Amino acid sequence: MSQKITKPFPSRQLAVVCVCRFAMVRDFKIAPEQSIGYYVGLITSCFALTQVLTGLVGTIISILLFGLSKSFAWALFSRSLCGLLNGNISVLKSMVSELTNDLLPHQRAQAFSLLPLMYGLGSIIGPMLGGFLSHPVSNYPNIFGHLGAITDFLVEYPYFLPCFISAFICLMGLIFGMIFLEETHKAVKYERVHQDEEVLPISDRQADLENYSTFTTNSTTGAVKIQHSPTPTLHDRNAPPTLKDALTPTVVAICITYGFFALQAVYMDASSRDNGGLGFSPNEIGSALAFSGVITLCSQIFILPVLTKKYGLLRLFQIVLFILVFVYLVQGVIPTLYYVPDLNGDVDTKFWVWVGLLIVLTFKTVCHTISFTGCTILVNNACPRDESLGAVNGFSSCCASGMRAIGPAMCGVIWSASLSSTWIPYSIRVNIAFVVLAGIGLFTYYLSTKLNADDYETAHSREEVVSTQDPSSSTSS
């Protein structure tokens, strides 16, 4: 087995990958408010359900179409289109894995943390865009109230402006990636260079080159063909690994765990207090999610590398999964903080609600950040060969997307059904969804305890098997 050589941190290419990564239901009036969760779940689910590898262009188009939504059916269609035309994350994960195969474990963790780092940055900007730029004419009449046709358009489509800004950011990521992103797969990159150097056109030096026995020339095209030894190749490069070869028991085990973790996503909604929500406005929800984005950034930069070094990747993954079980249970208690007197002795204020929400969001975001990043690294560490990275990351994304498709819809159904079950005491039915979520979290933790640390702590040695040939046999006299 070849000795692992630590190479410099690939900052430039990872920066380009990060740029590529950085890439309204109640107003449809289709259902009573207690059923909103069901429809939110469907809209969220259809994105993950139809996700395949097709790129940023589809994202731009679908975001703009979503901004033109005036009905539930249109919103469902545009989000389904977004899922159908976007799946860049599997490609980006494979690229980061190929860039960091030779790095130390904590450096590899730092590199993989950049992807959710960009997600965290988007979590800050995205909610702010949605919360502060939706309904621009009514919210900012001095700016958007006197623009003629533009004003009429923004009144007709109040969510188009934040979607337009999001699409523009995606366009910048697309352009940046097209210009600066390089091939990371070693075999493909070498093959391209080899093909470029296969035939060298000449003009002035043809007569001189004819004197060398190691070259043959074509008098018609004026080109020189270099006779050389066969290109070093990866083992079985002409026979790419099948999906069966890539999906080893080690890979399948971590992908299933990843899928159940993805199932745990619960989405905040602007539900009224009567329906078990916090009664927050869209702007307040945007601010809370932006705070969560800041915590994500801090977790990636300051917490994840330190804890990975101290506990090891798999052990840390198991710890945060266990903590999340209790976080989910506490989440359902936050609305009761309305009844706790604030510093002035007043009740029914949002002071302690905000305090409780920010504390829960902090723990939840830190744990989710570590879990998602850790699970991504564990999946790539389990990959048996470089050639299998695409298949393995694609399969893991399918597992996660399938569970994300089930999760929001299931949570929405449970939430709506529990609120409608008036025979159940109110204090119990508003917490049923969180109890179910905690149960899923506990099962996910149980799955993680069955993983063998030796299979996941470091990237598998993907030793290149090089075929060689005596150079003298390749020359022509």
UniProtKB/TrEMBL annotation:
PANTHER family cross-referenced by the UniProt entry: MAJOR FACILITATOR SUPERFAMILY (MFS) PROFILE DOMAIN-CONTAINING PROTEIN, MAJOR FACILITATOR SUPERFAMILY DOMAIN-CONTAINING PROTEIN 10
Membrane topology: Multi-pass membrane protein
Main localisation: membrane
Record key words, sorted: Membrane, Transmembrane, Transmembrane helix, Transport
One Gene Ontology molecular-function label: transmembrane transporter activity
UniProt subcellular location: Membrane
Protein's name according to its UniProt entry: Major facilitator superfamily (MFS) profile domain-containing protein
Residues forming coiled coils: none
Gene Ontology CC: membrane
Organism this protein belongs to: Thamnidium elegans
Entry-linked InterPro entries: MFS, MFS_trans_sf
Pfam families, sorted: MFS_1 (PF07690)
Transmembrane annotation, as ranges: 36-66, 112-133, 159-181, 246-267, 287-307, 319-339, 351-379, 391-417, 423-447
